[in-house]
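Work Package 4 report. The design task specified in the project plan requires that, given a folded chain encoded as C-alpha cells, an amino acid be chosen for each position. We show below one input record used in the internal validation round.
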C-alpha cells in the first residue's frame, strides 16, 4: 500500500480517515463487526475510530448474485427488533444493506456482500462460496446454522470440506472475545496468536470413516485447517503477519 488514501466519512466527519493495515484487530465503528484487514482509521489515534474498507465505501444501493432483491444501505437497520445477517448469521448492529420487503427483509453486513466467490490456497485448494449447503457443514454437522439461519458457506471443489461462514466467524469472534479482548473492552496485546489458533478446530474435526490410515487422516486434517484459515482470511481481511505466523505453526506438525 504505497499510496496514502485519505477520506472523509459522514459517520466521523470531524477528522480524516486513512487507509491502513492496522496493528491489531479492531471493531468496525460502522457495522460493529471485528476486522483485521486493511481499514480506514482516524488520523487521530486517540479517536480509536475504524471502518472496514467495505463499510467506508458502502454505496446507497447494491445487489448480490445470491439475492433477488435490490439492497439499500442504512447506517442503522430501519426495521426494529433483532436482525441477523443472511450471509454470516451474526447480529446486525450498525451499517447494513437491507432489502425493501416489509416482512422479513434480507439483511447483509457490507463486508459480507464482498465475500470472494472463490478462495484459492497456495497448494491449489479452492473453496467456492455457496448460498446453500447440499451436505452438512463439518463444524456444526448441520445444513442450517446454529441460529437457524440458512447462511452462506464455503465448499471445496472436491466437496469434501464444507463450512458455514457463520460457524467460522462465530468461532473466531468467541475466541477473540475470550482471549484477545479483556472484559472492559481493552485489548490484550499479548495473546492474539493464541486466540487465533484456538479458533481452529483440530481435535473436533469430524473424520470420514473411510480415511483409515494415519497418513490419510493427517492430510485430511491439514487440508481442513487450510480451508478454515482461507475462510478466516476472507472474513476478517487479508492475512496479516499475525495470521501467517499462526498458520505456519499450525501446519508444521
Ligand atoms: Zn464494518
Ligand atoms: Zn477522529
Ligand atoms: Zn454478515
Ligand atoms: Zn428481500
Ligand atoms: Zn456450520
Amino acid at each position: 500500500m504505497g499510496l496514502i488514501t485519505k477520506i472523509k466519512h459522514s459517520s466521523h466527519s470531524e477528522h480524516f480517515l486513512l487507509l491502513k493495515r492496522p496493528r491489531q484487530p479492531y471493531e468496525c465503528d460502522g457495522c460493529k463487526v471485528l476486522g483485521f484487514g486493511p481499514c480506514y482509521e482516524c488520523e487521530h489515534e486517540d479517536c480509536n475510530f475504524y471502518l472496514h474498507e467495505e463499510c467506508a465505501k458502502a454505496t446507497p444501493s447494491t445487489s448480490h448474485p445470491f439475492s433477488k432483491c435490490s439492497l439499500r444501505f442504512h447506517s442503522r437497520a430501519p426495521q426494529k427488533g433483532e436482525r441477523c445477517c443472511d450471509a454470516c448469521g451474526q447480529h446486525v448492529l450498525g451499517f447494513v444493506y437491507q432489502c425493501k420487503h416489509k416482512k422479513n427483509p434480507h439483511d447483509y453486513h457490507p463486508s459480507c456482500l464482498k465475500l470472494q466467490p472463490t478462495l484459492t490456497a497456495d497448494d491449489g485448494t479452492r473453496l467456492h462460496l455457496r448460498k446453500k449447503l447440499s451436505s452438512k457443514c463439518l463444524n456444526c454437522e448441520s445444513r442450517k446454522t446454529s441460529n437457524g439461519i440458512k447462511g452462506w458457506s464455503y465448499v471445496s471443489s472436491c466437496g469434501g470440506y464444507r463450512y458455514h461462514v457463520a460457524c467460522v466467524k462465530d468461532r473466531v469472534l468467541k475466541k477473540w472475545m475470550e482471549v484477545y479482548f479483556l472484559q472492559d473492552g481493552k485489548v490484550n496485546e499479548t495473546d492474539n496468536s493464541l486466540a487465533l489458533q484456538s479458533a481452529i478446530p483440530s481435535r473436533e474435526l469430524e473424520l470420514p470413516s473411510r480415511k483409515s490410515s494415519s497418513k490419510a487422516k493427517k492430510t485430511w486434517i491439514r487440508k481442513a485447517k487450510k480451508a478454515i484459515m482461507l475462510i478466516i482470511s476472507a472474513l476478517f481481511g487479508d492475512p496479516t503477519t499475525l495470521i501467517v505466523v499462526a498458520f505456519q505453526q499450525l501446519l508444521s506438525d
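The pocket of zinc ion (ligand 3) is lined by residues 85, 87-88, 90, 109, 112 (CB under 6 Å). Validation will be extended to a larger panel in the next phase.
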